[in-house]
Protein: DUF7483 domain-containing protein
Amino acid sequence: MFSDSMMLGGGRKAAFSIANSVRLDGVADYFTRTFGSPTAQGRWAFSLWFKRSQIGLSDRRHIFGGNSLSDSSRFAVFIDTNDSLRLDWGGESSQIVSSRKFRDVSAWYHLVMSLDGTASANQDRLRIWINGQRETDFAAFNASIPAIVSFNHVTQHFLGSEGGSGYFPGYFADVGFIDGAALDPSAFGETDPVTGSWRPKPIGNLDFGSNGFHLDFADGVDLGNDVSGKGNVWLPVSLGAADVVTDSPTNNYATINRLNMQSGLVLSNGNTSANGSAAVRWWRSSLAMSGGKWYFEMKANSANNSYCGIGIEPVAVTRNDGLNQYPGGSEGGADGYGLYTLASPPNQGIRHAHNGVYTDIADAGFNNASVMKVAVDLDAKMLWLGYDNTWIGGGDPAQGTSPTYTLSAQVSDWVMMGCAYNEVTCYFGASGFNLTVPAGFKSLCTANMPKPVIQAPSKHMDVVTYTGTGTSQVVTGLGFQPDLVWCKRRDNIESHGLYDSVRGPTKMLYSDLSNGEATDTNGIVSFNANGFAANGAMATNGSGGNYVAWCWKAGGAPVANTVGSIPSTVSANPTAGFSIAKYAGTGIAGISFGHGLSAAPKFILVKNVSSGNRNANTMDWMVFHTALGNSSQMRLNTTEGKLGPDAGMWNSTAPSTSVVTLGNHERVNYGGDNYIAYCWAEVPGFSKFGAYTGNGSSDGPFVHCGFRPRFVLIKRTDSAENWRMFDAARSPYNVVDNMLQTNDSSPEALGNANKLDFTANGFKVRSIDAGTNSNGTYIYAAFAEAPLGGAKTVPAKAR
Structure:
């Protein structure tokens, strides 16, 4: 079927839309069918979209397989206890285990697997693809693959379990099996030409063969109905119409974010139910809100609904792991709002709260069957809290009258937040609502989110890896002509090299040194339409060397800018929030230069490019970051923590939508010296600049970006640590642990102690290390590989 939410515009045809999925509880839900005689047992293809809801489990959870657990000839595909995808056949000694960790619970994966028993090469017999990309990196590949396995023959088969055990917790959608052809992913999906995200395509016209089937879960009464025309119906076990939801690979719904909740909280029901286990434990939603009108609900699942609540708070809030944190409590900061219950009936009480200021509601009529509700209009900055047929304050969201609270105009990104003492269920819209939704308000899902300003991040920022030749080489692979190329050799000690179009090719700076600009005709010699050209310098193109280049598009040839009190030469890309500005210092505090963007920069790198005899410390790279404030700064080429307060850098003045203001310090404003400034403003769905507080746990902080990251830079601010650089080109799957450092010429640290998971909606810190996650404070800069979603935008897939 097709959906208006997926009409892509721009002359493109509408993308195929999957309307439904089935939610499996991981306790007793599964499907089973006994196959008949196959068209070809040794040639088949299997396609399934899945969304995980639990990770780090103590036992394996099965996706599909044939024969029973006790049968040594069984074939089983499952997520193991290390969150890897694993295949067993003919006993556990014959197995394939992925290196990829499947720990992204925010979005959907697409799994395609095909068997071609006639293939001569062992690795080509059983092939696996995730989101359209073939898996070639395995933690184990332990045996030769036979021409046939115990799948697709006359025996019992399973979806979501194996023989009544190992139940899969999460969601399945659009399951297809082809008997008789070893198809690749192009039969089941395609790359969206704009976002670059993998998306489904119709499969109804495929030749399914004798045992083939297609489950679309559209009929809640007949969940196992085969719509392929082959009549190969599956038997649902412990499943019914209530398990059919509209959360799907083409319209991803909010859930409780398992990666951003208090330890000890027990989630179930596809991460829509939460149980605090007799303690008040908090959670946050997997999707965020920025603009628009949104509605959601929560209801207790037992007679004791004490100490449960819902509300909203800024995305930027980092909560600690302490108990008794309520919506609207002081832990949520000055801009947290919420509604929660007090003691259980018959002494029931309910209160609403903002920044730790609580207002009790007397004789509320709230009872253990009541439904709590939230309506928020972020454009009008209004919030209504209520229950059943009551809005607190007597307002009407549909009419925009008498909100419970007026929101801060300073916050642009919000998440849903709540707490639970006993079990509650949250209603985000995938399974409908209990009450009437106010007119104009929507459920939080990717199809209802605003269309991203940038649907194709790779046309503005990207990362390429390449092998050096030692002679002239043209590096391609970009979707734009770069204006800033930041190179680093990965396998040897070499300084970073930064080249930009404002200073011109061959003009090199070093992020790990305080040196001024150097001219290197063996470095990068041109910026090309889809990459750059480099000669044989060791820093950029040494023979046999492994390299990475982080690249940004500004505005091409620079132009004069006279907006500030001093002139600047600027190449600007306001759409992507990036500009390069060159200016001459005066030594006078309070001067300003124009940056060419239409929004205030949140992240700025400034470097003195002149050569002279001054103290090297006056030549350091200076960093402005919005989380540091306008009186503090850091140095990109050192390990130091936050410096300041010091008006000498930014004159205690935040950048405006047109200019950057400077103090009189030599590092940013020495009379007669030339400076280069790389300026980034935040663009929703493309870039994010913020801060988080570490927790010193392997279950580290989660940072919501609103996109799947391509590049992340992290720096500790409260003590000395290196600037850590991570990207999806060098770490194409989770775990992301191939690290470089802006202030260090050392080679890449492979599989290092600083570990992240990139997810469809941000990143999760997965290690205990002072550089990314001790009990300290950190700033970050992140850029997108794919937007999380939005109107007429294919949602990002799980990583």
